[in-house]
Amino acid sequence: MRVGMGQLRLPPDQFWASTPKEIKAMMEGAFGSCFWQPMTRDVLDQLQKKFPDELNEKTLNDKTFNNKTGP
Asked: Rounded to whole angstroms, how far apart are CA atoms 36 and 67?
């Protein structure tokens, strides 16, 4: 968001309507292609170990988190 709306100066509606490929193309056009490094599986695995998704008592009882019927 910082790059899209700050550096690229996209209006919020244009930023949110853009696909990841479009954002990547805009960033490469503005900053060059050398900055873009896709995340590797090893890095993803490390992040998942460091920040695991955990269901705890709060999330299990949170009506906004556990709303299966809709608003």
From this structure: 37
